[in-house]
Structure formats: structure tokens, C-alpha cells
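The following record pairs a protein chain with its ligand, zinc ion.
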Amino acid sequence: MTTQLSITTPDDWHLHLRDGNALNTTVPFSAKQFQRAIVMPNLAQAITNTDRALAYRQRILDAAPEGNSFQPLMVLYLTDDTSVVDIKQASESKHIVAAKLYPAGATTNSSNGVTNITRLAPIFNAMQTDGILLLVHAEVVDSNVDIFDREQVFIDKHLCAIRRDFPQLRIVLEHATTQQGIQFVEESNNTAATLTPQHLLFNRNDLLVSGIRPHNYCLPVLKRETHRQALVKAATSGSPKFFLGTDSAPHATQAKETNCGCAGCFTAHAAIELYTEVFEKEDALDKLEGFCSFYGADFYGLPRNKSTITLIKKQWSAPEHYSFGEQTLTPFRQETPLSWKLQT
Ligand code: DOR
Ligand code: ZN
């Protein structure tokens, strides 16, 4: 039995850090285990241009622990008003590597997202030319489409066309949750997907059986077990098209345990440990390093990290809450002890 494991320091290719005082909680959690992170731009005031991205980057760096070399990689938030000049400017900064497509209304702070994807053609063209990756929240928002089908419908209705029309554009299907998402990525060139701990560990029963569990509610919503199995198979397959992206998305405990709770699981307190559990269960610990530390960097065209982290097989439990400014933050899957611990 493996009881200690060293891997190249991983990166998180999909992370929500929020802003202001929240950064003092969120940044240290990610910085203790990840070298780099793709920082999502869906702040209350969205990161829609280079100036905002660079100012936000500095606020994140200011919240990193002394002596830590955590590197935030910034992302532009696409809107109906994004211009080719916005893309050009972003591509001239080495700190901005991607742009995120949120269909308007799909998730947290997405009201300024895109309402008409076909009108973004000149933007996708500029991104393709300038080497800016397209990160996609792949869910339609039509009220007549069942919430469990929204990813598949988005792929059929929009993603296939973008893939066909911009063949050199690198696309990441963020937080893939379905068998159809996995298949689309496998069959498409220049296309990859991030996979979250919650979608690898849980299915929709974990959200809805024996009581509703607000801390397991995220978007895209957890799917049925057959989909979870397809994600686990992809993650542990050794395919470089699938890599780590936590989608750790902190919301205060009160904002989740309420009448209309926010979507998002906070996993950054133990992200690498949660992924390690998934790979151990599949007897695929030999595939963990590629998924966590190599394939994302390769797809983004960035160097692999040089340092390492060590994980020890050891049971521990996360606290019921972490403090989060004046409020608290409930960690994902708090009720079950973790079986690996990052050595610090
Ligand atoms: O569950 C989610 N939370 N999904 C998203 O797409 C956004 C995120 C957030 O920002 O809270
Ligand atoms: Zn996200």
C-alpha cells in the first residue's frame, strides 16, 4: 500500500478566489498546494479588460503568504461588448492567458455574460490568432431545457459550431460533468476539459437523497452515476486532454444554507487530497501526477513546474467551518474524514 507520494507541484486550472477581504482566506489555501491557478473573472464587477485583470492579479499577490511563489493566471470575462482590441491588449500581457465564456444567467455573477454567442465570431477569431484560450461554461440557460441536460444541449447547439469554425482555437470545456462532454473532448482537436473533485466523487444522489445538501450544490449540477463514472475513467485514463480544475467556489455558509442557496463547492482546503482519493480508489495513483501537474501546463503551452509536493496517507478531518471575513465558509465533504494529507 502506498503511504507516501511525491508529485511535481500541481496547478489549478479553474479557481474562484473572489475579492477584497475574501482573498485573505482563499489565496493561502490554494497557494499551499498549487503553483499556479487560472483565476475566474466572475467578480461582482467582472474582469472585462486588461487593466482590471492586472489590478486583480496584484490584489491576489498581496494576499499570498510571505515568501510563497503562487502565480495567478488571469482570464478576461467575455461580454456582448468585448472588442477585438480587448483581446489584443490581453494577449500582450503575459499574465492573461484566456477568456471565459459565460452564457448570460448561467451561474454566479454571469448576468453580464454573453447573450448571443454567434456574434462573438470576430472575438474567437482574434483569440485564435493571438493564442488566447477559450474557457467555456458549457450550459444553455433556456428555461425549457432540463437542468440535467444543459451541458449536452450546449455542446450540440454551440460548442460543436465554435469547434468547427475556429479549428486552431484552444478550447477548455470547464468542469465537464457528462459522458457527452467527455466524448466531445476526446473526439475534438485542440480541446481539453477540467474535472472537479465534486463531480469525480459525487453524483446527484449526494445532493438530494435523505435531505437536500446545499454544500454539494454547484453548477453544472451533479449528474447521475453513469456520468460520474465516465469522468473518473477520463481523469484516470492518462489522456492529456483531461486535467485538474477544482472550480473551488467559496460562498459564505449562510448564503448556501438558505431559501435560495448559491451554487459552488469550496474544495480548496483539501483539493489535492480529494483528487488523490479518487485516483487511489481507481488504483491509478500512477496517473495522478500527469492529471494534476503536467497536462494542464502542456495544453496552455506553459512550462511544467519544477518543485514537488508530498502527500502522506493519514486520516484527518477538516473543521466544520473556516472563518471567511465576518462570516464562515463550510468546506466540501466536511462530514467524511480525508485519507491523505499534504505535508507542509
Ligand atoms: O457552482 C459554481 N459556482 N459554478 C460556477 O460556474 C460558478 C461558481 C461560482 O462562482 O460561485
Ligand atoms: Zn467556476
